[in-house]
């Protein structure tokens, strides 16, 4: 039988997060999350809403009322941009089958930052008066 706890555990695992990381991101204590996931206690509705936003799903999905993890109620579900720095901070990030260490992750951030800087500089150069006639 599917329970709120089993759904919350599944969502957390799909997001590749530990209970401690969920606590750091949401403020819901990891011991409390453990209680929910083990069906020792039930989250109140405000907590369910917080977790639905965090896991990018609906309260109905968490409550087991629907089987579709992603909300299609609006028909206009938009993807939220992901923060590259947060992605790189996750555990077990790989490139071509090789795990990235902290130095590799920092190198990626440095390269991206440099490229964004160059792009901004080029765009600013184009916006200067008279630069269109070069």
Description:
Strands 1-2 form a two-stranded antiparallel sheet. The termini are far apart. The longest helix has 26 residues, at 102-127. It has helices at 4-14, 19-26, 30-37, 45-54, 59-62, 84-89, 102-127, and strands at 94-95, 98-99. α2 (19-26) crosses α3 (30-37). It is mainly α. It is elongated. It has two domains: 4-62, 434 Repressor (Amino-terminal Domain); 84-133.
Strand order of the largest sheet: 1-2
Mean pLDDT, to the nearest integer, reads 82
Q: Please, what is the oligomeric state?
A: single chain
The value of Rg in angstroms is: 21 Å
- Total beta strands: 2
Class by SSE composition: mainly alpha
Q: Which spans of ≥5 residues are poorly predicted at pLDDT below 50?
A: 71-77
The tally of domains stands at 2
What distinguishing features does this structure have?
134 residues; mainly alpha; 434 Repressor (Amino-terminal Domain); 2 domains; two-stranded antiparallel sheet; 7 helices; 2 strands; 54% helix
Task: Please sum up the structure shown.
54% of the residues lie in helices and 3% in strands.
Secondary structure: elements and pairs:
Layout: H1 4-14, H2 19-26, H3 30-37, H4 45-54, H5 59-62, H6 84-89, E1 94-95, E2 98-99, H7 102-127
Antiparallel strand pairs: 1-2
Helix pairs in contact: 2-3
């Amino acid at each position: 039988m599917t329970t709120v706890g089993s759904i919350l555990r599944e969502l957390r695992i799909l997001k590749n997060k530990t209970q401690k990381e969920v606590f750091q991101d949401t403020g819901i204590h990891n011991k409390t999350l453990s209680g929910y996931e083990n069906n020792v206690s039930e989250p109140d509705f405000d907590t369910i809403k917080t977790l639905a936003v965090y896991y990018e799903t609906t309260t109905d999905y968490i409550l087991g009322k629907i089987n579709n993890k992603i909300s299609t109620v609006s028909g206009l579900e938009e993807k939220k941009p992901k923060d590259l720095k947060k992605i790189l901070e996750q555990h077990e990030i790989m490139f071509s089958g090789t795990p990235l260490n902290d130095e590799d992750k920092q190198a990626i951030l440095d390269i991206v930052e440099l490229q964004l800087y160059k792009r901004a500089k080029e765009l600013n150069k184009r916006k200067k008066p008279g630069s269109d006639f070069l």
